[in-house]
Design a protein that fits this description.
2 domains; alpha/beta; FAD/NAD(P)-binding domain
Length: 428
């Protein structure tokens, strides 16, 4: 996997609706809010701010949606990855309730943007969580009971192994839970569609513009090699790719690799055999597999979350056997695309949202579950800038561990921790 300034050579990049060609930042520019990062968080915040009457500029080091926003599995899943019971101990009952409602709203933010801006991104509804053991099944029943108790707005259905055959053509799984409100989509087309909507409403986007310095203080600015954006407020939304741009965030988020392969287009009969109801699917393991069909009937199969900081020599070489194990019907099928990138992992799995100074905000660390959460996070930071900080303050009060020693220490430490959890799964 070789990163360049252009989009990764993925299925998404090969089928994007248009090539983004926004100008490089040159010279002096002024705005109300400058945003570092052209992914989902940055675009969501920018659109919300534009709606509130702010003048906005987004500065992206590479291309819009170049990072995880344009490389992920395309899973439309509401909620946060964190344990809300543990979160309640940190922020109180009211704070946990606010976070729960934010999680529900996160999916709606995405759908509203798609509808409002007429974004073509292959949206499909239906998400299937599958069980591989009795422990998973027990968790599913508790999960549904908890959702019912909290008046969860979307239909959920437990399916037995016999019923599961109506949704997935694999003998590997023994039960499942369907969420009819969640689903899947083309993430790159979603984000570049949001970018187009932003520019149409007067927002500025600069690509190929790596921020070398964030100047804080009374008159903050984003500084690149060839230009400067002066702003009243700054939002830092670089996530796993922020690196050393903001020293005060160093060590707070650990970049972990995540990878996907895409098969050649499948016949309709085979696609219908594999995933008859065209839902997105994932299992419940720490190192989970996730998969779905693309609009042109390719199997997109992802997983291989790598916490070591090293990329595999062959993404296909590792993921293809996993896919064939789940779907023996795909043995011999050609892999047309393989790609990967980094996701930002927070040590407690809670998204990190806060201020560096009164006029500098940041959000990062979605821990592999960011499509919907990044959209609500962008809205929440925009609202905080506009003076409504109740939801922002819930997350801002959470303390986050920063691993010392840089990535040479943090990535191996995280890798050892995840190996322990995977060993526990095997022993169970």
């Amino acid at each position: 996997m070789i990163d360049t300034n252009e989009h990764a050579k993925s299925y998404y990049a090969a089928t994007k609706n248009w090539q983004t060609e926004y100008p490089e930042l040159k010279g002096e520019h002024h705005c109300d809010v400058a945003i570092l990062g052209g992914g989902f968080t940055g675009m969501s915040a920018a659109l919300r701010l534009i709606e509130r009457g702010y003048n906005v500029a987004v500065v992206e080091a590479n291309r819009v949606s170049w990072g995880a926003s344009g490389r992920n599995g395309g899973q439309l899943i509401d909620g946060f990855v964190m344990d809300l019971d543990k979160f309640e101990k940190k922020v109180g009952k009211n704070g946990a309730e606010i976070a729960y409602q934010m999680g529900i709203e996160s999916r709606d933010v995405v759908l509203d943007r798609i509808k409002k801006h007429n974004i073509d991104c292959d949206l499909r509804f239906g998400f299937l969580d599958v069980a591989m053991n009795q422990g998973d099944i027990d968790d599913f029943h508790e999960w549904i009971e908890e959702k019912d108790k909290n008046n969860y707005p979307h239909k959920m259905e437990f399916v037995t192994k016999d019923e599961l055959r109506n949704h997935i053509g694999s003998e590997r799984y023994i039960a499942g839970v369907i969420n009819y409100g969640n689903g899947h989509l083309h993430p790159l087309n979603l984000c570049i569609g949001e970018a187009r909507a932003l520019v149409e409403q007067g927002g500025m986007i600069f690509e190929q513009s790596h921020v070398n310095k964030i100047q804080h203080g009374k008159n903050p600015k984003l500084i690149t090699e060839h230009g400067v954006v002066h702003a009243k407020k700054i939002i830092i939304a670089g996530n796993a790719y922020l690196q050393k741009t903001e020293p005060k965030l160093a060590g707070a988020v650990i970049p972990a690799g995540s990878y996907i392969i895409a098969t050649e287009p499948l016949s309709k009969s085979l696609a219908d055999e594999l995933l008859p109801s065209n839902m997105a699917v994932c299992d419940q393991r720490v190192g989970l597999d996730y998969f779905r069909l693309s609009a042109d009937r390719r199997m997109l199969f992802g997983g291989l979350c790598n916490y070591s900081g090293r990329n595999p020599k062959s993404i296909t070489g590792v993921l293809k056997p996993k896919m064939d194990r789940a779907f023996p019907q795909l043995k011999g099928k050609k892999i047309d695309y393989e790609w990967g990138g980094y996701i930002g992992i927070s040590m407690n799995r809670i998204p990190q949202m806060g201020r560096i100074q009164d006029n500098t905000y940041y959000v990062q660390g979605y821990s592999g579950h960011g499509l919907c959460p990044s959209h609500i996070a962008g809205n929440v930071i925009a609202d905080a800038i506009a003076g409504d900080s109740e939801r922002f303050d819930v997350f801002d009060k959470v303390w986050h561990l920063k691993l010392p020693g840089g990535l040479w220490f943090a990535n191996p430490t995280l890798a050892l921790g995840m190996m322990w959890y995977r060993l526990k799964e095997l022993l169970a």
